[in-house]
Amino acid sequence: MTASPVERLNAALDGRYAIERELGEGGMATVCLADDLKHERKVALKVLKPELAAVVGAERFLAEIKTTANLTHPHILPLHDSGEADSFLFYVMPYVEGETLQNRIAREHQLPVDDAVRIATNVSEALDYAHRHGVIHRDIKPANILLQDGKPVISDFGIALAVGVAGGGRLTETGLSVGTPHYMSPEQATGDLSVGAATDIYALGCALYEMLVGEPPYTGSTAQAILGKIIQGKTASAAEERASVPQNVDAAIRKALEKLPADRFVGAQDFSKALGDPGFRHGVEVTAGMVGGRGHWNPLSIGMTGVAALAVMFGAWALTRPETTGQVSRFEVTLPDGLEPNVAYPGGVTVSPDGSEIVFRGTSEGLSRLWRRSLDQLTPTPIPGTDAAWAPRYSPDGTMVAFFAGGNAITTVSLAGAPPMTLVVELAAGGWFLWGTDGWLYFTNVDQTIWRVPVEGGPWEQVTTLAEDDAVHGHGEVLPDGRGLLFTRQGFGGIQVAVLSFETGEVTTLFEGLDAHYAASGHIVYSSVEGTLLAAPFDLGRLRITGPSRSLVEGLLVNGGNGSSYSAMSESGVLVYLTGEVGGYSETELVWVSRSGVAQPVEAGWRFESPTDDFGWSLSPDGTQVAVTGHVEGNLDIWIKELSGGPFERLTFDEALQAYPVWAPDDRMVSYVSGQLLGFDVWQRRADGTGSPELVHDDERSLLQPRWSSNGEWMVFRTTEGAVGRDIVGLRPGVDTAVVSLVVSDEFTEWGPALSPDGRWLAYSSDQTGREEVYVRPFPDVGSSLHQVSVGGGSNPCWAHGGGEIFYLEEDGRFISASLQTEPAFRVLTRETLFTLGPEYLLGDGGADYYEVAPDDQRFLMGRRAGESLAGPGGFVVVQNFFEELRRLVPAN
Description:
Layout: H1 5-12, E1 17-25, E2 29-36, E3 41-48, H2 50-56, H3 58-65, E4 81-85, E5 88-94, E6 99-100, H4 101-108, H5 113-132, E7 145-148, E8 151-154, H6 159-167, H7 171-174, H8 186-189, H9 197-213, H10 223-232, H11 238-241, H12 247-256, H13 268-276, H14 299-320, E9 329-334, E10 339-341, E11 349-351, E12 357-364, E13 367-374, E14 381-382, E15 390-394, E16 400-405, E17 409-414, E18 421-424, E19 433-435, E20 440-444, E21 450-454, E22 461-462, E23 470-478, E24 484-491, E25 494-501, E26 507-512, E27 514-519, E28 523-527, E29 533-539, E30 544-545, E31 550-553, E32 558-559, E33 564-565, E34 567-569, E35 575-577, E36 585-594, E37 599-601, E38 608-611, E39 617-619, E40 625-632, E41 635-642, E42 648-650, E43 657-663, E44 669-676, E45 679-686, E46 694-697, E47 702-708, E48 715-720, E49 728-731, E50 740-743, E51 750-755, E52 761-766, E53 773-778, E54 787-788, E55 795-799, E56 805-809, E57 814-821, E58 827-836, E59 851-853, E60 859-865, E61 875-880, H15 882-889
Antiparallel strand pairs: 1-2, 2-3, 3-5, 4-5, 6-7, 7-8, 9-61, 10-12, 11-12, 12-13, 13-14, 15-16, 16-17, 17-18, 19-20, 20-21, 21-22, 23-24, 24-25, 25-26, 27-28, 28-29, 29-30, 29-31, 32-33, 34-35, 35-61, 36-37, 36-38, 36-60, 39-40, 40-41, 41-42, 43-44, 44-45, 45-46, 47-48, 48-49, 49-50, 51-52, ...
């Protein structure tokens, strides 16, 4: 006689679980009551349906389900165990003595309003927790909400995700789907597998509606009929069906049930807040009893109808009354002594959508963080959890700020005081992002084109493609109604503003400029590379400029190197900007810094103009000369300074950009890179200026940060090329005709190479752990082992001449010495903080060269800003009702 499935499973699980009986069957699994023999407790053992298990596969399902195992929340039922037994895939959860929410609704039909709101609030808190940990449920419904002592607990958390991810598109072959028809979001109903947090919010809105009304918002005789109403039907209102439902609760449900994910709540925590906020409203308020044949007219409803009629009359008057003109006003927002805007990174200021406050990146007491300044307050306040953050961006609803943190992880912080959370774990060396109003995050990827990712997380989509003359895309803005995207195209011909039509895919170049914004007055506001703020009339329907540009502000602080200005504009017409020195250059003073942190100028009174963001300097092997990247006559060139009072002379004169100087081992030659943007080759010239520049290597990749081995046999570089991003490659000049891949990854970023004095080890920085750390590999056999040197973040590694130390920088400015053992095996013995560098020092990321080690290993050649701060007067200029000025000064044609 053939054994039953339960008998087979009991035999396979002998010694672990003993199944007592079958409790029920769901869409994906059969639920059994079982004894956990080891822990002597009752558990719910769920067995995936055989046809589903066959499609998913054991290995993939068990791998994906691990992502849910660490969810710990009072309203989430934990996952105890999972596995495979006799071809069955199973998972184990606590057995809850109680009933499901579905059972309670079936028994009571309609729950008390307070009970329903409390349950929905608790569930939304659990969803918020899970979403912040990157887990989407995908099958929220009353049957999956257990009531334990009256409190809700979500079961099967992430099981649908595990099935969906593991099974992928093959689920459709079985006739199975992830989700239950009554609670499917429109995106699920249309077969979109890339659903996010908005899907869970939609399903919770359905569940709350059902708790209040007694049935789901969309019903039908067949699954197809239900899905049709979900996709095309009118948004359901609980207040139409039940007069006692508060307006804010009904508004929250209607927002949660919006057809487009971007129109729903940004996060589950916002749903929870709306349920508890009596003043929350969304769209057109619905009056109880509006639908004929339901409910009864009573004095309250009659009174409400009268109020509604008055509201309609007032709304009509508001739409037809003459438009009032706001007074344009300008004022400066000064900052306290000791706090200054930090302009080392792009996009350092953002304005709230309503124009009432700004958030900016500022430095105080050597620490950079985000600061919040309400325009009706006198002083700014720091935002907790934003140390070393940069590129802040308000969320579309103004309740949160997103920013880069660590490498390129996008993090959000609630302005209501909730702790920061990671929104997108790691963007690939983008350097720019935009929180769109359409539910997407837009960013520049390593291939230098613009991509996007749902704000809830999910698969990335490419938005733009490089044209023949393009090198970098970035700094954009989504146009209203999702019509298109403004962005900058940076290439060998300069920086231009372009617009991409989402409907046709057509890209149109508008004009030369950068950092463009759309104004509701019908204009594009942008900056020139010279520091002028301009505006041009713009036809949003045709995505075309309709008239000439007009200059508005001179002396705007602009960083032409990264294509951004230090300005921002709100949707309500508030403009904020900084004035200051045009360009990305400042006077730099080189200093010797001892191991104890004492600084002394290399030469009193000597300074040079240098980039503030990259390129660095190099000390000759004998310590008597330094080669620097200097700015002169609009170009970057290599200069040589003889120390101890010697001359400062220009070494290169080419119209291309020259940067990253490095001395050859013999002291006679200086190597450097020369080119434009993403096309740098390696050259060299005699340090005394005689002879002509010599090409060392011309490569299809852009080569930066050259380093010689001490014997002159090898050069190593970091690259910048398309989707490859930053990698470490090597070359034996005169031997190799092409570079040799050393540390190359499509997934991670590697930079800052440094060869040990004996040529046996290669140090570099990588973000493979999610933040930048310093690593060492054998050289040239880099694949034989890998050793992590830093433990608290690290960049810019440099070897001591004795070979027994590596120096590196931590993000907060701490300068670290790591003592090493290289024989018989590589090992880090100690890590010691030598000193901490203040904000006046030039500190780059792992792709910049900002210090050198003296030949005696006892001091370090570093640079600090010596000229005027690029932040201008130390405050922001604010222009209110800026759109009125645009209409007056730049009339539309």
